[in-house]
Amino acid sequence: MLGQHGRGITRALFTAPARGLARIGVTPNMLTVAGTVATIAVAVLTLPQGRFVLGPVLLALVLIGDSFDGILARLTGTSSPFGAFLDSTMDRLADGAVFGSLAVWAALHLQAGPLRTWTVAIAVATVVLAAAVPYARARAESVGASAAVGIAERTDRLIVTAVGVLAVGLGAPAWVLTAALALVAVGSLITVMQRVTTVHQQLTGPAAVTHP
Question: Would you say residue 140 has pLDDT above 70?
Answer without folding.
Answer: yes
